[in-house]
Specification:
alpha+beta; Cathepsin B, Chain A; four-stranded antiparallel β-sheet; globular
Length: about 120
């Protein structure tokens, strides 16, 4: 049986980027506390930017690349899991995709299956 994807709830309203990066790192066997990830992603009163998340990921030895890509090519083009820039500046982690469903770890709401 495949292991469950790790989930961390965001600690405040502006912590979705840090929580998303923490989930990706944990999936790859790396453990970081949120305070450390916050210290290397430099959040402001509006949270972190995609560039901040990318820089923090590189800082902890992970490769990152920001792309805008149509949904139709996601399964073929993007390795899972990945951080997605979601509605109005919110970040989530996409960790599974099929032809009809997408599994998302949303730091604000939990794990969600979308169809």
């Amino acid at each position: 049986m495949p292991r469950s994807f790790p989930f961390y709830k965001q600690l405040d309203a502006m912590d979705c980027g840090v929580a998303s990066l923490r989930m990706i790192a944990r999936h790859h066997g790396r453990h970081y506390n949120p305070e450390y990830l916050r210290s290397i992603s430099y959040p402001d009163r509006e949270g972190v930017s995609l560039m901040d998340i990318s820089d923090a990921a590189e800082h902890i030895g992970m490769h990152s690349l920001a792309v805008k890509i149509p949904y139709e090519v996601l399964p073929e083009e993007i390795p899972l899991p990945f951080v997605a820039h979601w509605r109005q500046g919110h970040f989530v982690v996409v960790y599974k995709i099929t032809k009809t469903k997408v599994w998302v770890a949303d730091p604000a709401h939990g794990k969600v299956k979308l169809s």
